[in-house]
Amino acid sequence: MKKIINTTWLKFTSFILSCFVNVISFAQDKTLVLSYSEQQTSTFKIDFQQIDLNTKVGIFPAYDRNLKAPVINLTDTFLSKRLNVPLLRNEQAGIWKKIWRAELFIGGAELFGATVLIVTPKKLTKWSHDWEQEAWRHIKRSLKLPVWDDDNWKINFIGHPIAGSFYYNSLRSQNARVCHSFLFATAQSFIWEYLIEATAEKPSTQDLIITPIVGSLLGESIHFVTMNMRRNGFNFFEKIFVLIFNPSFVFNNGLGPRFNPIRQNQLF
User: What kind and span of H or E run contains 219?
Assistant: First the structure.
């Protein structure tokens, strides 16, 4: 009973912390957007005292050839600044093209993950020692309802949310909608539990819940932080952060000038 209570509180704490990080990141993003807009938007002031309005009686000023109007320069406007920011890869593509690329990245990552689990000591993964022979029987058994697993808490409450954030951002980093990214993360979680990991154990109830939900909250927070860093170009330390916490963004967009702004100050 005590173990169940501790597990429940650990899940609850993980969920609350993820929500908190998401709210903080969202608030920070809104502040930066307002600040960026105020700094970049130019206000045009027309001095009408310098305009020659010597018009003739009965002639509308717009038809007077002597009317002089100032030329407004749009080279320093917020619009021009926005147009100079490269688009994300597949930003204007259809959702299925984005899903195909995301699946390409996730498929490779899941293959790598499955390989890691295979070579991981069975004491940690709780897999059977002869799982190769029992894989097909396990897959047929997995078609039943999921069960509550006894995996190490580091796998359930750290590993799965991180995996969920990778699922989420593999689509979100192509400028996909939040709902599409969440559904993709959910689908990938079911694929992992019922097709890949099911070769060794039954699908896990908490993994099917934690991976897409907490993973999407964590992934959206990381996405906001990444996009804030991207606005003025990544510095060295920001590149390290994105490479570690948002590899999906790096796979889709890289860190170079093709899909990201160029940083003016290259020293930091």
Answer: helix 205-230
Contact at 8 Å (CB) between 173 and 252? yes
What element of type H or E holds 172?
Answer: helix 160-172
- pLDDT per residue over 58-100, tens digit each? 444 555 555 555 555 544 444 444 456 778 888 889 999 999 9
> In sequence order, what DSSP letters do the residues of 4-52 get, joined into one string?
HHHHHHHHHHHHHHHHHHHHHHHHHHHHHHHHHHHHHPPPP---GGGS-
- Give the C-alpha separation, 116 to 153, whole Å: 18
The full set of domain ranges for the chain reads: 96-262
| Gap between the Cα atoms of 221 and 211, Å rounded | 15
Nearest in space to 36 (alpha carbons), one of 87, 84, 82, 74? 82
What letter would DSSP give residue 192? Answer: I
Distance of CA 165 to the CA centre of its chain: 7
**Whole-angstrom distance, CA of residue 77 vs CA of residue 81:** 6
CA dist., res. 40 & res. 82, Å (int): 9
pLDDT in tens, 188-211: 999 988 888 787 778 888 899 999
